[in-house]
Amino acid sequence: MNASVAVQVLPMYPEKQKVLAVVDAVIAYIKSTGINYEVSAFETTMEGDYDQLMAILKEIPIVTAKAGGTSQMVCAKINYFPEDTGLTIADKVTKFKH
Asked: Thiamine-binding protein domain: which residues (predicted)?
């Protein structure tokens, strides 16, 4: 693992069902890639190979469009570790789980 990426999809619709459908499609896509990820209330964090994560991130707006999305923003935070020395998701959050 040499990177982690947090991605937030913000559908701009008043209908809650449409918002959920777009977000659910993105999470299903991320799950289908086989990478390690964790869903939270505001974003989904992925970890793995930098190039693979960038390919996944690049695909997310396309996934939203295929799910019927016509107006959404995709925000990302990227943490790259050139020497595979970064903290994992588990390192960062396990002690806070209840």
From this structure: 5-96
